[in-house]
Amino acid sequence: MGQNLSCGVKDDNGLFTAIQYGDIEVVKHVMENDANFVVKKKTVYDRHSALHIAAANGQIEIVNLLLDKSSVNPDALNRRKQTPLMLAAMHGKIACVEKLIEAGANILMFDSLNGRTCLHYAAYYGHSDCLETILSSARTSHVAASWGFSRFVNIRDGKGATPLHLAARQRRPECVHILLDSGALVCASTGGYGLPGSTPLHLAARGGSMDCVRELLAWGADRLHRDASGRIPYAVALKHNYGVCAALLNPSSAEPLVWPSPLKFISELNQDAKALLEQALMEINRERERSILKGTGYSVSSPSHSDATGMDDNISEASDSQLCCICFDQLCAIEVQDCGHQMCAQCTLALCCHDKPNPTTSALAAPICPFCRSNIERLAVIKVKASTVDQGLDVFSSPKQRKSRRSINLSEGSSSFRGLSGASFGKMVGRGSGRVSADLEWDKP
């Protein structure tokens, strides 16, 4: 993809070597003698300009120096029609990416190698910071007005692959999450990339990335979607001997809880509330994974927000007002604004995710508060009091920690809410069925 930035060509002035290693004094000296020479000089084979080499090597001082010259084109093209921004995104040089975008670099340029943009490069190589910077620019630049932000997030390369396809195939879960959160289509099919008709879930199964599979399923990826050869992701995982992925992708296993992205109040959540609910969602799905893999000889890796928080099981009991009155397991963490009723994060998700989002429906009916039966239109995080923290309690804790709080009499309180306990979440999502042959072929991309 154009990674060769060879300076092994005739370089009488030592310009390219100086740029590559960040010798700004040499670059300044050459520019003082002949600034036009620096602007027009290119390597013989790859046709890299001075700006290409500086951006690819993360030499931000030299990038600044070159861009200060009004005659330097931030969208200069090399032999493969790659821009300096593409090379900076490819190599994860975030400072150079930010500077080039600030200088007016066009994020909608396509190379001639695979028809990819800087967004494809950042997703393919897993540079999440560069990906976020490019997406942030797309929200505020002319791209949003001319193309539309959603169209840019799902932009396809010459073989019909979106950035999400590339991130899933290359095992880049952070990039997968960012793209899905930005509106990437979870069930988009490829053209000529991989096997035609592959979705991001097919490609994640092909790469055996549990984290990518987990993210895609949590955003509503269809386990029954077939590629051009008629295979579902389950068959792809079996073909390449990824047993854990295959177990979770098996249509006969329980479906995961899906992030309720179509709901308006979910899209308007502040970052604290969103992070709390996402953490709860992943924990619910990990419990499902453990149930599926129990007795298979496989195990699920520990979550990044680890259950082991170093807290003892002998935790002081919370008062009735602090515990969620639906599950009696966890502290209330989320408040329904307007009516003021409070729930834990997992029970909030159970209400929001009871019906799996329909891809053909642009919006879903707001769920109903189980206490007052009013529509839930806005959520907020409850601020935890210092005294609660001193007791060693958290708004989100592991199942092991929750057991220590079970001394509360579950017969007290409304029996109509007990059906929504954390133990019944698995019943709130349906089960698929079907058997797929593992003897199907896969053409390597």
Automatic annotation (TrEMBL):
Pathway: Protein modification; protein ubiquitination. Residues 398-445 are annotated as: Disordered. Its EC number is 2.3.2.27. Pfam families: Ank (PF00023), Ank_2 (PF12796), RING_XB3-XBAT31 (PF24921). The keyword Chaperone does not apply. PANTHER family: ANKYRIN REPEAT AND PROTEIN KINASE DOMAIN-CONTAINING PROTEIN, ANKYRIN REPEAT-CONTAINING PROTEIN-RELATED. This is RING-type E3 ubiquitin transferase. It comes from Artemisia desertorum. The lineage of its organism: Eukaryota, Viridiplantae, Streptophyta, Embryophyta, Tracheophyta. The gene is ZFP1.
